[in-house]
Each structure stands twice: as structure tokens, then as C-alpha cells.
Amino acid sequence: MYDKQISDGELLRSLRGDDTAAFEVLYDRYWKALYLKACQRVDKDEAKDLVQEVMISLWRRRKEIAPDQEGDLGRYLFTAIKYRVISHYAFTATEIKKLDIFDILEGQLNNDALETKELKASIESAVSRLPARMQQIFRMSREDDCSIPDIARKLNLSEQTVKNQLTEALKRLRNSLQASSSGEWALMLAYMFLHVHKNL
């Protein structure tokens, strides 16, 4: 048994040694707060599921996760629940906008630069595998900030064709990245979605 005053850092060290009792303490310590946070965006049943996913991820990644400078896992876990909510609404632009996604993205860039670089590299790899015309349209929209009418005019295409190509590009990217990764990818996918779909 662990004293309730034991620090997250000490519990994490035990967790890395596959100590399920340490996991139970962390679970009890954070479950309610994470649940209440998730309930701000989703219904109660969905919130329970999302918190469960976060805690499962904590166990699976127990040997990789590092606490913050104060030895607290709270920041990691609350960021993780934000990821799960974003994933839940990954392709519903109205809901994503409510989540201050760019603030979360900036925080992730600062807190885990290596992982973020890997995310970006995987997205770039997925984009590069799109058919040539689809990739061109996608890059013009996301990277060059061209509107659909601008893209249609420059490429001598109908606006509907451009819309169809962007929609199909997003579908392929989502399937490609989600098939090879965990829910954290949804953050970057959501970023692409917002950037492209503001013109749809």
C-alpha cells in the first residue's frame, strides 16, 4: 500500500517497474478531475470512455512518460484528455474551434518537441503519397492558403472538383495516420482539417 501523500514521480518510478498498486493510486488521484474536465465537452458516458483511454495509455506508456519539473503527472494527463476530446471531434470543425487547438498545439511543441517533429514527419510522408494532382491541391490550400476559387482558377478546374479532391485527401490522410498511430495523431489531423476546411 502507498501513502496518499506519495509524489507522482515516486509512483511513476514504481509504475515503470510494472507496479499495479502504483497505477491504482494514480488512477484514483486523477480519475475524477479528468472526468469532470472531459464532461465540459462531451456527455458523461463518453467522458468515462475517454478517461479510461487516457489511463490505459498511461499504463501502456509508463516506461516512456516523464513527469514535469515538479514531479507532477497532472499536466501530461490533462493534455492527454484534451487530445482524446479532440480525437472525438476530430473532423467536426465547430467543436474543434471551441477547444483552443492552437494553444494546445503550441504547448505540445514546447513540451515534447521530438514527438511533434515525428508527427509532422509522418503527416508529410502521408501527404507525399497522395496522387500528384490531389497533393498539389491539398498543398495549395494548406500551405499556400489559397481559396477554392483561387485553386480552381489557377489549375483550370471546377470549384466542385477542387472540393472533392480536398475532401478525398483528408479522408486518405486520416485513414493513413490513424491506421498507424494512437489518438494523439488526431491533434495534427485536426489542425490540417481546420486549415483546409476554412475554405470549403
Commentary on this structure:
By secondary structure, the protein is an all-alpha fold. It folds into two domains: 1-88, Rna Polymerase Sigma Factor, Chain: A; 113-200, Winged helix-like DNA-binding domain superfamily/Winged helix DNA-binding domain (Arc Repressor Mutant, subunit A, Orthogonal Bundle), CATH 1.10.10.10. It is 74% helix and 0% strand. The protein is built from eleven helices and no strands. Helix 7 packs across helix 10 and helix 9 crosses helix 10 (159-179). The longest helix has 21 residues, at 159-179. It starts with 7 loop residues before the first helix and ends with a helix. The model is unreliable at 91-114, 182-188 and 190-199 (pLDDT under 50).
Structural domain count: 2
Q: How much of the residues is beta strand, in percent?
A: under 5%
Quickly give the CATH architecture of the largest domain: Orthogonal Bundle
Using the coordinates above, name the CATH class of the largest domain: Mainly Alpha
Shape: elongated
Q: What is the end-to-end distance? A: 56 Å
Mean pLDDT: 75
CATH H level, superfamily name of the largest domain: RNA polymerase sigma factor, region 2, helix turn helix motif
